[in-house]
Amino acid sequence: MLSMRDLRVRPAAEADLAALVRLRDDAARRLLARGVTGQWRPGELDEDHFRRVMAHGEVWLAEADGLLAGAWELWWEDEDAWGPQPPVAGYVHRLMVDRATTAPGTGRLLLDAAERRVAEAGRTRVRLDCLAGNTQLNAYYADAGYRVVGHKAGKPQPGGTPKSFTLMEKQLG
C-alpha cells in the first residue's frame, strides 16, 4: 500500500500543464465509463485553465516512483460556491488520481496532503464542493471526515453549464 513517504508532493509548474490536462481527461473518461455523467468531460479544461489557477491559487502534483500519481487544485477563496468568506479555509478542487499507476487509497493521501497545506497556511478549515448527484463521491468525502454544510445550485463551471453541488467542510486540528 502506498504511503505519504512514497509520494513526492510539489507545486505544479508550467512544464506540468500537459500532464495535468491528460490526468483530468483520463479521470473524466473513467467517470463516464462508470456511468457518472454530468460531472467531468474530456477536453473540458485546457492548459490555460491550470495556468490561471496557478496564477491565483495553487496546483499540486504527487509523484510516486517518478510517475504522476495525482494532482489537485487549492484555492484560497471560492465565492462562486461559498460567497464572500473570512480567510479561514482552503478550497480543494479537482482532486485527481492516476488509477493506472496508483494503488487504492491514493486519493485519501492526496486529500491528507491538501489538508496539511491548508493547515500550514494558518487556515482552520478545508472546504470542497461535490457534484450533488454523485452519491458515491459525496460518501467518499463524508468518510474522509467532511460534513455537509450546504448546497449550491447553478454554480458556474469552466467550459460547461452551471451545476448543483453539495458544500462540504472539514475542521482541521
Automatic annotation (TrEMBL):
Provenance organism: Streptomyces collinus
SUPFAM superfamilies: Acyl-CoA N-acyltransferases (Nat)
Keyword Chloroplast: no
GO cellular component, as recorded: ribosome
Name of the protein described by the UniProt record: Ribosomal protein S18 acetylase RimI-like enzyme
Keyword terms: Acyltransferase, Ribonucleoprotein, Ribosomal protein, Transferase
Cited Pfam families: Acetyltransf_1
PROSITE patterns to which the protein is assigned, alphabetical: GNAT (PS51186)
Residue ranges occupied by any N-acetyltransferase domain in the UniProt entry: 7-173
Record flagged with keyword Zinc-finger: no
